[in-house]
Automatic annotation (TrEMBL):
Signal peptide: none annotated. It comes from Cimex lectularius (Bed bug). Residues 1-30, 47-87 are annotated as: Disordered. This is PiggyBac transposable element-derived protein domain-containing protein. Residues 55-65 have a biased composition (Acidic residues). Pfam families: DDE_Tnp_1_7 (PF13843), zf-Tnp_2 (PF13842).
Length: 555
């Protein structure tokens, strides 16, 4: 649960924190959205989209001038160094078996998703959304809210299915998903939910009651964060090797994946950090906002690993997080750390001259090794893992020798990143408030986690797209479809309209004639077609059923 400052996850280890200057969060800007029927829909500027922005190289130069929550350690007290390991304690071995504690009975994609997004979460969202809709109905001047119909779990699943499916179809505007123009004409949206209903659910979507004392953006997400962390802790045992992923941060009107070197956390001061294992599974998330958004990175990392200390985990960090202080704290908690070190965080007293190519120099302090190695340029890194030896690797067809710590670090940082969560993102078309964008991100993260778990345990092999499409079909209660180019008229027989009180058959406008600019009424229609179109018996009926248009037929 969240404390008053807005971070989540049970902190079992308390670390003294540096001074935390307050961050003022300006009010949301609410412009006119593309959907005028809901002028009060939760929106922000049109440029608030979701993208990936890897800015690690920029963070190096910016952090030196603007600060990143960690003052350079070179200004601290001098550290005692040794040329030999000075750690008398033994190396703790990780002895857990990673994987699902209780795999689902069935091995379908939807079964793995329901491990994370269960009926309890659906019921919670329905309850909070209905409460907010009732609050809107009591307000004066909100006419659209009076048309609200209570949201139920089955309808919420359809809403989530459509939201996920939007990420598969890149269309400029949200209403185009319901556009009946032949160039769009995606009937799976209009056949399951009207546009007005979808937008109304999107407007009223809530995950916590607004009546609570803390109505900040982070507080509105605490139930979703808590549910995710609780589900992962009870369902899954992570691998030995862990890494802290690049935080998701609002930046310049967008939500990006960036280290945010100036440590502003965007307009709302919100940053989402995630802890991943070697299989790419996110095992814990923490959301920091307000004053917590400027906490030192040591506190952030210790918060993420607080439930995984004293088990012998190996934590691999990018240079944004790495410091000697953090490595020492993790070592005291039975967790080992490896990461590239910035030169401005080099501890005082570490005097190593320039090296020749291939040369490695290591100095130790409190069981942590600070190493300097040169290939084409000098590289500083920290490791408390007992693997400070050289290994041979093949690079560009040549055999090279590199430190094993750097080889393992590069593999962990670059393999199975959570960037895949942005591949099928619907928020390019959705103008939402900040907390709803983070909520959509968390739902996408649950789908990605379900895919990782499915890949580890299921016998079938799915791509991420096929996995997501299978989930969408189940949420929309659809079966797989096949396509047929021609559907003979023998399968569709003409039917006469019913007669009126005077015994005359009703006549309706021929659909094919009308599409060609002619007005002609007919007493026949096709009862097998979805829209039961009225058609002239000849020649419109056979021409209509032998067109070149693809007809979707469900099994």
């Amino acid at each position: 649960m969240a404390d008053s400052d807005g971070d989540f996850g049970p902190p079992s280890v308390k670390i003294p924190r540096l001074s935390e200057p307050a961050v003022d969060s300006p009010k949301d800007v609410i412009p006119q959205d593309l959907l005028k029927i809901y002028e009060d829909i939760d929106t922000v500027s049109e440029s608030e989209l979701i993208h990936i922005s890897e800015s690690e190289s920029e963070s190096e130069s910016d952090s030196e001038s603007s600060g990143d929550g960690n003052p350079p350690e070179v200004q601290g007290e001098e550290v005692e160094w040794s040329d030999v390991p000075n750690n008398e304690e033994g190396y703790q071995v990780y002895n857990k078996t990673p994987g699902l504690i209780a795999p689902p009975q069935k091995s379908e994609p939807i079964d793995y998703l329901l491990l994370l997004i269960d009926n309890e979460l659906f019921d919670l969202i329905c309850e909070r959304t209905n409460n907010y809709a009732s609050k809107l109905m009591k307000e004066d001047g909100n006419e659209k809210a009076h048309d609200w119909v209570e949201l139920k779990t089955c309808e919420l699943k359809i809403f989530v299915g459509l939201l996920l499916h939007m990420g598969h179809l890149q269309i400029p505007h949200i209403e185009d998903y319901w556009n009946k123009d032949p160039l769009f004409n995606m009937t799976c949206f209009s056949s399951h939910m009207s546009l007005n209903r979808f937008l109304m659910i999107l407007k009223c979507l809530r995950f916590a009651d607004d009546t609570e004392e803390d109505a900040s953006e982070t507080c509105k997400l605490k139930n979703l964060i808590h549910h995710f962390n609780k589900a992962m802790s009870t369902l899954y045992i992570g691998a030995r090797d862990l890494t802290v992923d690049v935080p998701v941060t609002p930046h310049k009107g967008r939500i990006v994946m960036s280290h945010d070197p100036k440590n502003k956390g965007g307009k709302h001061g919100i940053k989402l950090y995630s802890l991943c294992d070697a299989h790419g599974v996110v095992i814990k998330c923490c959301l920091f906002g307000g004053e917590k958004g400027r906490m030192p990175v040591e506190d952030i990392v210790m918060e993420l690993v607080s439930d995984h200390l004293f088990h012998g985990h190996s934590l691999y960090l990018v240079e944004f997080y790495t410091s000697l202080k953090l490595a020492s704290l993790l070592k005291e908690g039975g967790t080992y750390c490896t990461g590239v070190l910035r030169s401005d965080r080099l501890p005082k007293g570490y005097d190593v001259p320039s090296l020749n190519q291939g040369q490695l120099v290591t100095k130790y302090s409190k069981g942590v090794a600070v190493c300097k190695w040169k290939d084409r340029r000098h590289t500083l890194y920290i490791t408390s893992v007992n693997n400070n030896q050289m290994v041979n690797i093949k690079s560009q067809g040549k055999l090279k020798t590199r430190p094993k710590a750097l080889v393992d670090h590069e593999y962990m940082i670059n393999s199975k990143r959570t960037d895949d969560v942005f591949e099928y993102y619907p928020c390019e078309k959705l103008r939402l408030r900040c907390f709803k964008k983070f909520a959509v991100h968390l739902i996408q993260l649950m789908v990605l986690n379900a895919y990782r778990l499915f890949s580890l345990h299921a016998d079938d092999s799915y791509s991420l797209l096929d996995f997501r499409l299978s989930i969408v079909r189940e949420l929309l209660s659809l079966k797989r479809v096949f396509l047929t180019r021609f559907l003979g008229s023998a399968h569709h027989l003409p039917t006469r309209h019913s007669v009126n009180e005077r015994g005359k058959a009703l006549r309706k406008r021929c659909k094919l004639c009308y599409s060609q600019g002619r007005r002609k009424d007919t007493t026949y229609y096709c009862s097998q077609c979805p829209d039961t179109p009225a058609l002239c018996l000849h020649p419109c009926f056979p021409r209509f059923h032998h067109s070149d248009l693809l007809t979707i037929v469900y099994k």
